[in-house]
Amino acid sequence: MIKTDILIIGAGPTGLFAVFEAGLLKLKCHLIDALAEPGGQCSEIYPKKPIYDIPGYPEILAGDLTKKLLEQSKQFEPGFTLGERAETIEKQVDGSFVVTTNKGTKHSAPVVAIAGGLGSFEPRKPAIKNLSDYEDRGVAYIIKDPEVYRNKRVVIAGGGDSALDWTIFLSEVASNVTLIHRRTEFRGALDSVEKVQALKDNGNIDLITPAEVKGLYGKSKLDSISYSVLNEQEKHIKTDAFIPLFGLSPKLGPISNWGLEIDKNAIKVNNSLDYQTNIPGIFAIGDVNIYPGKLKLILCGFHEATLMCQAAYKIINPGKRLVLRYTTVTGIDGFDGTRKEATKSVVKSID
Amino acid sequence: MSLDICIKITDRQGILHTIDAPTDMALNLMEVVRLYELVPEGTIGICGGMAMCASCQCYVQSSHLLPEITADEEAMLSEAVNVKPNSRLGCQIQINTEMDGLEVELAPEE
What we know:
By secondary structure, chain A is of the alpha/beta class. Helix content of chain A is 21%, strand content 27%.
């Protein structure tokens, strides 16, 4: 059981900044995120795109903002459970919460802050009618252990970076790799596109474009697929695995079953007082919440995270008073023993 | 003076909406759909209009001359579901006066 003060669900900019604000109040944070890396949308959807409305940064790339936020909260030693989706929440008799992920990791905290943005990113699934029948029976949307495909026949579908990268990687592992894409153009790093071209030219992989996978076949598990080029007659190929890699799309997911009030795919909070939900002790901050006047901006998420931490402090330290202090005056004492402070002005007389 | 154009949008339930879209606000089609709340918030314009998701996919039913499909839009459409030959991403269609009478149908939610 992982124990912390504030359990943050979502490691995007809002969640990461909450770690800093909590740290100033001596509260420890742990973050859960379904993605394998922190940063949320900033890392997953648009890491190379600029943002112009972060106060103090006339221009910053989304990926760089993530790096800066991680650096800013580093001394408060946040814990991370990455690549796992928060699945269930249970209130304990002492008022604390236990949140369990889809992989069974349990987290306990007196305060839960949902900073889930648009929800957890789930693989986009192609519209093939019996697709779900073959999940874990030859069909996978995420490659966890490439060794599973050693000496197997693999069909990959997709035209982005992950389709290209896994085609390159699995060409060394699998007995046969076929890449099927709806267009002849691929969207990926130039280097990857060139490598796939070379693999095709050397006969190391089969490349079928512009084509679409149409059907899946096999009794207890997948043994062949059919595809069609430009809607011509379908052709069949034998395969052990089919891996559609069409990117990720966000879904609010299991959080929507936690008994929280939901409106317009977002979690309702008590106006802009402290962003607490209808369940005391559970807060919703950043893009995931909704209240009158809500704006889905990163800078609003920072503000919401800050107010949430004040309210969390009062829950965790009942009866204790809190005085607003400025980092410039007090400096920052990290949980790792580091201290940052303004240099003292020297008082010395001049003869 | 604001110049409005008329756009016919069939929503995901198949209901036809005839709406007046302003041409002086630099809006794109995805934003027009949100402005009129034709679909629930959070189910359209997820990436904010960067052609990096397909939540604003629509089918263009009239023969209006629209901005050309960029490489980014093309790549996104090649990965999306329910794509038809007349599919476009609403966020890449900037509304202008030439588009009066435009008819589109919103693609199903992914």
